[in-house]
Design a protein that fits this description.
Order of helices and strands: HHHHHEHEHEHEEEHEEEHEEHE
Structural class: alpha/beta
Helix content: 25-40%
Strand order of the largest sheet: 1-2-3-4-5-6-7-9-11-12
Largest sheet: 10 strands, parallel
Strand content: 5-15%
Radius of gyration: 33 Å
Distance between the termini: 74 Å
Number of strands: 12
Amino acid sequence: MSFSANEAVEMVSQLLLGASREISSLQLDDGKEWSDKTKRKETLDGLIACVTQLTRQLHDIIVKSRRLHNFALPLYRLPLEVICDILSLVLEDEFDRAGGFRSVKSLHRLASVSHTWFHLIKDTPSFWYLASSADPLPLLSQVLRRSNAGPLDVVHKGASENDGPHDDTFMNLVIPQSHRWRSLDILWTTSTYDLGFISRLRHLPVPALETLELENYAYADTVEIFDGIADRVRHVELRRCCIPWGSGVLSCLRTLLLRDPGDNGPTQQQLLDMLSASPGLIELSLADLEGDSLEPSDDSHVPLTNPINLSKLKDLRMVRVSPPLSHFILINIRIPACEYIGITHHQLPHSPFGFFEDPSLSHISSMFKAYYTSSPSIHITLVRP
């Protein structure tokens, strides 16, 4: 007769419970039965000790057997590098489902799935890349220690004045590691703490930085950042904030998202200079650009002698960018590989494709017609909200 591991544990547990009940029922009264009852109690105590030891051994056997069973699963037949990639995708998916909020606590939940996952995650430095001000400082210290000099994604999501005083521990931990920063994502307020953090970025060398995301709760003056080494930045997202528009950070980009820069936004010429400095741009998104500095001049309908060639651009989106400025941008760029153009503004013509009737935009309309014939998925969308 054979039993499963769970059934064996249940049987031993019942035996232990029965022995305990037997002991509690003993009545050790004075008299001649004392020696018999004492002997009986000693016997039961020995039995309990034996059963307890067997239970522990059985538990260890079950744990080991389950681990062996887990190792036999198809997942663990893959190379460790592939398993790490799978776990990384699971982690990123959890971040996405959390609305982009990222925390080391997500990594801890993933490590709690099994003994194997725990040790794999604990001993793999590439998992320990997220340094977030949202996490307790002990977790942040754990990240810096276990990342083993690997790349770091630094995230700071703002501190309100109403939150009370903040010490500089987070800044003091991550700023000395700026040479390891792979990405920087900051949403800041007008609090003294946040402004102090921003001010310390000005002369900071970030030689490994690839992604820069800056967002301000309210409009602010131009932010002076990264006068030091920052020549590997390829993805920039700026929301309600401005940096020096001639900065080297805004060159050789692959992705540029510029939204609502306010009164300190780039001029028309600075916008063209940014595009000229990034001929390898793949994705360009402009939103809520307005102000006198961006209003095209009287001769802005005349294309440049040498238009800007963005031969790798795949995705172009302009949301609530005035039609004159949209027109100015489109007549001065060449985007032969573009697969999507989205223009959204409440002042678009009633006939959206009338927007492209201007002869100066013939290169866009002809490109659209040629591409649409071969691939209907490539299209131009104009929307009037």
